[in-house]
Amino acid sequence: MNNHELNREGRRNVEAELLRRGAASVTSRGTRKIYLHVTNSNQSRTVELQVKTKRKGNWHTRTDEAKPSGTPMALEDVRHFWVFVDLGGTPRYRIVPNGWIRNDIHEAHQQYLNKHGGHRAQNDDSNHHSIHESRLENWQNTWDILGIF
To answer: pLDDT at position 40, please?
Structure first.
């Protein structure tokens, strides 16, 4: 299974889980980055989900996804979330507010750069960022934060 197939499988698993839990509708939007738009049963709330999928190792993103945050938003005001899917066995999900994960990426990358004297260890031009599941432990199966069920 290549990366595109793995990502499609992750989105299919998330869609199925959302519908099983009671989401009224799930639609895909986007070309390069595909987002799921999920609506509750009375159409009063829609959230956007960015899905990251892995079978082994870590999840991958880019440092340009990093953004330091100020005051966290109240969950009822958050409309954009990331869903991290682990397909290395029975599917496992971590549902994370966009602002939280972007700030986490920023902080982790800054720590990495500080550890290496302000530079990447091997290639300063790289924008790769790895997310170990230990950073997302507190977000496992937090589907309720979406506020759509």
So the answer is: 95
Is 51:14 a contact under the CB 8 Å cutoff? Answer: yes
Q: Are strands 92-97 and 80-86 parallel, antiparallel or unpaired?
A: antiparallel
Strand order in the sheet with 80-86: 25-29, 35-39, 46-54, 80-86, 92-97
Tell me the pLDDT tens digit for each residue of 88-138.
Answer: 999 999 999 999 999 999 999 888 878 788 877 888 888 899 999 999 999
- Between the alpha carbon of residue 59 and those of residues 13, 20, 23, 71, 87, the distances in Å are 16, 25, 26, 26, 11
Domains of the chain, each with CATH number or no CATH:
3-146 (3.40.1350)
**How much is the pTM?**
0.91
Q: How far apart are CA 70 and CA 72, in angstroms?
A: 6
